[in-house]
Design a protein that fits this description.
single chain, 5 helices, about 70% helix
């Protein structure tokens, strides 16, 4: 089952082409995210170590393409934290709305009570009849 020289060369070439195509696709995603891919020789994959050396590119990928950042080994929990913060803000806004509605109901009940007391001729502050 020995491969001939031509078969080994063909296999090595197709491996290099596959790696190069993958690297170009990764570089295209980096450019689409607004970054500049690191330089690399032909047939070599994009290295996560080279990306890790560039703090700007690392943070850009973590913010704009977290899946690619995770694939390259430079991912962080930045996206997850942003989602958790947004959910916490939404819950806080909901709680504030509920509290506002409860206060609105209490104020409406107090206004009705004061109005009833005035119609009955009772001072709502002292509880005594007017003029007595």
């Amino acid at each position: 089952m020995d491969l001939t020289l031509d078969q080994r060369i063909e296999a090595a070439h197709s491996d290099a082409e596959r790696v190069e195509n993958d690297a170009r696709a990764i570089e295209a995603r980096i450019v689409a995210a607004g970054g500049v891919p690191p330089t690399r020789p032909y047939g070599r994959p994009v290295s996560g170590d080279d990306i890790r050396k560039s703090l700007t590119l690392t943070s850009l990928l973590q913010r704009k393409d977290p899946k690619l950042a995770g694939y390259l080994g430079v991912g962080s929990d930045h996206q997850r934290r942003r989602e958790e913060e947004a959910a916490a803000r939404q819950m806080q806004a909901q709680a504030l709305q509920m509290q506002t509605e409860r206060l609105r109901q209490v104020n409406a009940a107090s206004a009705r009570y004061r109005q009833q007391q005035q119609l009955a001729g009772v001072n709502p502050i002292t509880g005594r009849r007017w003029g007595a």
